[in-house]
């Protein structure tokens, strides 16, 4: 029913209803783009009266099925109403379009008339044009001859002018030469060159050509001269080069000349720098003179340096680098820029590009820069190596920074050059060298501190207003002395430890400058990573800690077995130092380092535990060595006292031998000394009167019983029974064993060594009755005083038992002394 | 197997002197000298029956005094020397003498072991090794592998070379060397080198080791401060003429090349007290036995400085035996210097240790309380060295 509406896609601006109808029509033909997809689904419904798939049967059936009569009636009226309205819509459309059709027909008719008139006029025009053509042909036919003549004449004229130019060329060139208008001369010559070349077989032209050649040669000569003189400005120079290039001068030669010219200037800069460096061998540089002798050979040859023995000994490195940057690097940059302008950039655009000049020129430039830079670098490196003083690192860092920064200019100019990398390498080398110097400075500081400590230990402390020192003036560490010096041991330890720590901190601070944010090269990956971890952490901090441990251990080895060279107190102090390192200092230092340098560990690093283990090992070794040395000192006394006496023919004991008192005194002083640095430690619990009790058991009951058993001649088999039984139940004693880090363990170790020596010495001697009694007295005396020092007093009892037992065995007339008498003698002292 | 267990023999007296019977190469026999001030001292001849793991002992009386050192003649099984202390008039004198065992000691009623205790036979004195000028003998050394006619005694600071004549009944000093220097110098021990035609002697005094040329009786080398403290004992490597081991009160055992006496070539620090004795195995010089007053005996395997640093060289004969051996050889990794074993059977200081002269895999050690322990090289190591 919408078929009629098809042709009349309306442009009318009618009411909304029309638009709706229009919309519906559009919809019916599926023209609507927006709703296409959505409509699709809707319009598939056969009951949709507006849809394209409308089926009236289905619709009617559906209505009939679903609706009541009233509804059907309503539906019917509604339908009729709709149909009627549609009909009227259609009529309106038909009417409107009919009007338009009428007016169109009118217009067409009018156009037909107009075209007929135009056709007539066009016919007239074509007739006129034919007449004009005819006249024109007639005229050109008459003018033909003259035209040819004129053309010929004008050709001759130009030729003559050219010839004139050629003939005048030599004179003109000469004039240009006089006026030094080289550019114009070259231009003129270039214009004529080809022609002359072509017609050179004609004698006249040949002459001109020869003349020109001569003049141009002269000109080239002059240009070259100018170029060579070098005094001219960069602009002149570049003009020269350009002209010479146009004159077919070989570019290679020009490059060489240019560069050699530049080289001479740069070299004078370098010589100036070289003069700044101290001549060899100066006092401070003697150390590594051999290393640098080769490098210095050239320096020595220059008269300038030898003329002034030490011209710039006070120029610091910053000034030096400054001068290097300002003079050498900046002129190098200038040379590079102008060179590039002359040979590379220009040639690329000009007609010379084909000659591969840029490549050649670049190669030459690179070689040139590399060569000069290498010399510059060697100078800088020499200068850096002279920076031995560790004092102020900031100057060096700033100098290196400047050095590095200025080389960046070269990078920009010469992107492919190896120069900046070499520069960075120099900075890196300088930095690592610096770290090494710091390490050795730290090491020597440590050794110096140790020497100081040693001196402090060895100096009689009388000068220190001996108030605190009861005995006064005893040498600490000497066998006799330990008792007075130790007051200062903890102070010495703390001051040593603090000064080392301070030194480490200040070194770290100095080294830290290398990675400061405002330093350009700190951004380099090396300084971010490897320098921090490998350089600072490993080769500075870790190496130093290792050095401390190692040098400490060397005290144990190198001191020799005599134990004389290192004062025992130093061993003790170092042992404590290493132990402190193990417990806290190492991790503190490393944490400090890691924090300061934000170390990112790419490469394997030494873990804290390894260092701690090393420190602990060193501490243990030192302490063991201390025990050994002290034990030996006492052993030696005991051994001498046993070996030198005639025990068979000795008098009845009245006193404790002096050597025993000495042993007790020394043990006490060692106890005090160790107590200053090490904690008390655990000992087996004993009651307050344990000494008395155990002592009485030891001396009266057991000992008496044993003597009784041992010396009844009827029972030779029982000789060792008791002592063997005793041994069965006691643990084996390791004499020179490792000790723990506490006072009791240390003293126990020393006493063990001493008493075992005593025992072995006694076994090698033969005793008389009084000899045995003297040993009894001595042992009782030792018993009275030594038990309090050791962790397990039974140990002392056991060893002293053995001594008395052995001397009884070795006695010709074993008659032991009464216990009460022994006690009296001992208490009398 | 059970026979690797140590065999222990107890003496009634304390003892320091132990030696293997050098001239005896069939039976495993050790001589022990006792130390007693109150009873007659004895020499125990200890035979070890390897197959039955049984010890047989014979006792000879040594009435002269307590024995500090004992040495067996390399030529005559029955001859031995002792250094002993004699006490008279409350004076103690050290002497040395050559003795002969009574010829029938071996036959002395083996069926009743107690018998020997009842009436032990007495040693027969052949001659004294003392003269009026030199006494206080520290030790007597037989010429190694000699004919039993030459001995050296070390007395105080003299080394005396004696010639024994008339079946050892006569001893004359043929030459002597004197140690001179500050203080009272005294030889503590010595060893006669089996190399260089037996023309060299090494002695220890205090911390120094000295070498002597017996032909001129002059010092040829001196290792000052060989040990931190007293040097207790020496031994020559039986197969490498310049190699010498020493031990001392610094708990160390050191190995020296006497051509370069600045540094020891090797140092062992296994003992925790003084080391009193060091002995190379007679046939396999990588095996070193050390005895210490920490009551331990340590057997070390010093391959790197032995005469067979790469293990036993394979003979052609063995090569032809087949491929099995080859594969085994390849499987063996080179031996490292190591402690083979620590023997803790002793309760008191061990002053002496000796290898058997008959069985190279067997050794005895003697502690002060009179305990003699016979041990063997662990079987695994033995096969490793042999194969």
TrEMBL record, chain A:
Single biological process term from Gene Ontology: protein transport
Q: Where is the Exocyst complex component EXOC2/Sec5 N-terminal domain?
A: 49-349
For this UniProt record, the keywords arranged alphabetically read as follows: Coiled coil, Endosome, Golgi apparatus, Lipid transport, Protein transport, Transport
- Pfam families noted in UniProt: Sec5
GO CC list: cytosol; EARP complex; GARP complex; membrane
Places the protein is found: Golgi apparatus, trans-Golgi network; Recycling endosome
The signal peptide, as residue positions, is none
Check the record and name the InterPro entries matching this protein. Cullin_repeat-like_dom_sf, EXOC2/Sec5_N_dom, Vps51
What's the family?
Belongs to the VPS51 family.
User: What is this protein's function?
Assistant: Involved in retrograde transport from early and late endosomes to the late Golgi. The GARP complex is required for the maintenance of protein retrieval from endosomes to the TGN, acid hydrolase sorting, lysosome function, endosomal cholesterol traffic and autophagy. Acts as component of the EARP complex that is involved in endocytic recycling.
- Name listed for the protein in its UniProt record: Vacuolar protein sorting-associated protein 51 homolog
Which source organism does the UniProt entry give?
Zoarces viviparus (Viviparous eelpout)
TrEMBL record, chain B:
Q: Which residues form the EIPR1-like beta-propeller domain?
A: 7-299
First and last residues of every WD repeat = 224-266
Entries under SMART domains matching the protein:
WD40
Matching PANTHER family, A to Z? Answer: EARP AND GARP COMPLEX-INTERACTING PROTEIN 1, WD-REPEAT PROTEIN
The Gene Ontology biological process terms listed for this entry are: protein ubiquitination; regulation of cellular localization; regulation of transport
Q: Which Pfam families has this protein been placed in?
A: Beta-prop_EIPR1, WD40
Q: Which residues form a coiled coil?
A: none
Q: Where is the signal peptide?
A: none
The record's section on SUPFAM superfamilies has: WD40 repeat-like
What is the source species?
Zoarces viviparus
The UniProt record lists the keyword Repeat: yes
State the UniProt keywords alphabetically. Repeat, WD repeat
Instruction: Specify the protein name.
Output: EIPR1-like beta-propeller domain-containing protein
Family matches, as InterPro entries: Beta-prop_EIPR1-like, EIPR1, WD40/YVTN_repeat-like_dom_sf, WD40_repeat_CS, WD40_repeat_dom_sf, WD40_rpt
Q: Which family does it belong to?
A: Belongs to the WD repeat EIPR1 family.
């Amino acid at each position: 029913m919408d078929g009629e509406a098809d042709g009349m896609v309306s442009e009318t601006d009618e009411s909304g209803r029309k638009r709706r109808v229009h919309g519906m029509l559009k919809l019916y033909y599926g023209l609507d783009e927006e709703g296409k997809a959505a409509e699709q689904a809707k319009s598939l419904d056969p009951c949709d009266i507006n849809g394209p798939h409308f089926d009236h049967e289905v619709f009617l059936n559906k209505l009939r099925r679903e609706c009541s009569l009233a509804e059907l009636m309503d539906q019917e009226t509604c339908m009729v109403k709709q149909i009627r309205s549609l009909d009227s819509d259609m009529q309106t459309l038909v009417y409107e379009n009919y009007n338009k059709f009428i007016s169109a027909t009118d217009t067409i008719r009018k156009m037909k008339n107009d075209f007929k008139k135009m056709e007539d006029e066009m016919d007239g025009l074509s007739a006129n044009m034919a007449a004009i053509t005819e006249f024109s042909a007639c005229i050109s036919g008459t003018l033909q001859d003259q035209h040819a003549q004129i053309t010929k004449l004008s050709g001759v004229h130009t030729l003559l002018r050219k010839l004139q130019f050629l003939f005048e060329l030599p004179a003109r060139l000469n004039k240009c030469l006089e006026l030094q208008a080289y550019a114009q001369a070259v231009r003129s010559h270039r214009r004529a060159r080809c022609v002359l070349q072509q017609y050179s077989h004609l004698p006249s032209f040949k002459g001109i050509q020869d003349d020109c050649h001569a003049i141009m040669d002269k000109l080239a000569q002059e240009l070259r001269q100018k170029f060579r003189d070098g005094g001219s400005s960069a602009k002149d120079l570049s003009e020269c080069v350009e002209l010479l290039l146009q004159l077919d001068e070989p570019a290679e030669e020009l490059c060489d000349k240019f560069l050699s010219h530049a080289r001479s200037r740069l070299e004078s800069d370098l010589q100036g720098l070289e003069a700044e460096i101290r001549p060899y061998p100066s006092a401070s540089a003697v150390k590594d003179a051999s290393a640098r002798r080769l490098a210095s050979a050239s320096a020595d040859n220059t008269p300038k340096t030898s003329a002034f023995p030490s011209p710039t000994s006070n120029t610091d490195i910053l000034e030096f680098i400054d001068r290097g940057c300002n003079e050498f690097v900046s002129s190098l940059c200038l040379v590079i820029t102008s060179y590039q302008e002359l040979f590379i950039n220009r040639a690329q655009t000009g007609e010379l590009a084909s000659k591969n000049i840029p490549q050649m020129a670049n190669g030459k430039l690179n070689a040139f820069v590399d060569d000069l830079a290498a010399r510059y670098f060697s100078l800088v490196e020499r200068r850096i190596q002279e920076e031995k003083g560790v004092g102020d690192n900031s100057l060096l860092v700033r100098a290196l920074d400047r050095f590095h920064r200025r080389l960046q200019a070269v990078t920009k100019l010469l992107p492919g050059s190896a120069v900046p990398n070499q520069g960075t390498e120099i900075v890196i080398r300088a930095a690592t060298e610096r770290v090494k110097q710091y390490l050795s400075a730290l090491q020597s500081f440590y050794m110096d501190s140790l020497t100081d400590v040693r001196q402090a230990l060895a100096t009689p402390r009388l000068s220190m207003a001996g108030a605190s020192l009861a005995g006064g003036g005893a040498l600490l560490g000497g066998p006799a002395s330990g008792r007075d010096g130790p007051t200062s041991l903890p102070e010495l330890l703390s001051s040593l430890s603090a000064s080392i720590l301070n030194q480490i901190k200040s070194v770290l601070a100095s080294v830290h400058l290398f990675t400061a944010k405002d330093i350009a090269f700190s951004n380099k990956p090396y300084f971010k990573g490897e320098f921090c971890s490998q350089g600072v952490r490993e080769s500075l901090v870790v190496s130093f800690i290792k050095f401390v441990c190692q040098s400490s251990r060397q005290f144990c080895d190198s001191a020799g077995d005599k134990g004389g060279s290192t004062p025992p107190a130093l061993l003790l102090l170092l042992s404590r130092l290493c132990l402190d390192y193990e417990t806290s200092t190492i991790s503190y230092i490393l944490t400090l380092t890691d924090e300061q340098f934000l170390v990112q560990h790419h490469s394997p690093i030494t873990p804290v535990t390894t260092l701690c283990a090393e420190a602990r090992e060193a501490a243990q070794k030192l302490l063991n060595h201390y025990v050994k040395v002290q034990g030996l000192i006492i052993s030696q006394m005991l051994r001498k006292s046993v070996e030198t006496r005639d025990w068979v023919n000795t008098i009845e004991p009245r006193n404790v031998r002096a050597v025993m008192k000495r042993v007790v005194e020394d043990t006490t002083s060692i106890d005090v000394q160790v107590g200053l640095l090490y904690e008390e430690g655990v000992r087996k619990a004993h009651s307050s009167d344990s000494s008395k009790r155990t002592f009485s058991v030891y001396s009266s009951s057991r000992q008496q019983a044993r003597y009784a058993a041992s010396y009844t001649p009827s029972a030779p088999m029982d000789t060792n029974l008791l002592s063997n039984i005793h041994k069965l139940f006691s643990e084996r004693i390791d004499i020179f064993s490792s000790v723990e880090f506490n006072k009791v363990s240390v003293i126990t170790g020393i006493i063990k060594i001493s008493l075992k020596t005593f025992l072995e010495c006694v076994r090698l001697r033969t005793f008389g009755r009084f000899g045995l009694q003297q040993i009894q007295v001595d042992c009782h005396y030792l018993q009275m005083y030594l038990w309090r020092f050791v962790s397990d007093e039974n140990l002392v009892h056991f060893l002293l038992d053995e001594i008395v037992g052995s001397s009884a065995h070795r006695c010709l007339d074993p008659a032991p002394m009464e216990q009460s008498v022994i006690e009296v003698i001992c208490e009398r002292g | 197997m059970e026979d690797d267990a140590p065999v222990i023999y107890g003496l009634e007296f304390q003892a320091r002197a132990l030696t293997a019977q050098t001239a005896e190469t069939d039976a495993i026999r050790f001589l022990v000298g006792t130390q007693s001030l109150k009873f007659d001292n004895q020499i125990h001849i200890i035979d070890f029956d390897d197959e039955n793991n049984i010890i047989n002992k014979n006792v000879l009386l040594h009435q002269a005094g307590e024995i500090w050192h004992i040495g067996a003649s390399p030529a005559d099984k029955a001859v031995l020397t002792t250094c002993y202390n004699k006490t008279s008039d409350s004076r103690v004198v050290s002497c040395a003498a050559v003795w002969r065992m009574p010829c029938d000691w071996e036959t002395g009623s083996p069926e009743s072991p107690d018998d020997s205790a009842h009436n032990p036979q007495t040693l027969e004195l052949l001659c004294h090794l003392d003269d009026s000028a030199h006494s206080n003998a520290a030790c007597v050394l037989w010429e190694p592998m000699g004919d039993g006619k030459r001995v050296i005694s070390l007395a105080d600071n003299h080394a005396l070379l004696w010639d024994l004549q008339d079946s050892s009944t006569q001893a004359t000093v043929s030459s002597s060397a004197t140690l001179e220097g500050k203080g009272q110098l005294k030889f503590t021990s010595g060893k006669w080198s089996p190399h260089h035609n037996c023309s060299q002697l090494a002695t220890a005094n205090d911390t120094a080791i000295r070498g002597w040329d017996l032909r001129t009786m002059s010092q040829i080398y001196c290792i000052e401060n060989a040990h931190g403290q007293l040097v207790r004992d020496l031994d020559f490597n039986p197969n490498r003429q310049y190699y010498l081991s020493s031990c001392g009160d610094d708990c160390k055992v050191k190995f020296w090349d006497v051509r370069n006496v600045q540094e020891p070539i090797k140092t062992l620090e296994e003992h925790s007290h003084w080391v009193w004795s060091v002995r190379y195995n007679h046939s396999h010089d990588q095996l070193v036995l050390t005895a210490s007053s920490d009551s331990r005996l340590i057997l070390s395997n010093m391959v790197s400085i032995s005469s067979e640093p790469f293990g036993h060289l394979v003979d052609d004969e063995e090569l032809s035996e087949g491929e099995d051996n080859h594969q085994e050889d390849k499987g063996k990794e080179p031996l490292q210097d190591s402690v083979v074993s620590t023997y803790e059977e002793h309760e008191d200081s061990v002053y002496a240790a000796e290898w058997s002269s008959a069985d190279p895999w067997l050794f005895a050690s003697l502690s002060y309380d009179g305990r003699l322990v016979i041990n063997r090289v662990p079987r695994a190591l033995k096969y490793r060295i042999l194969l």
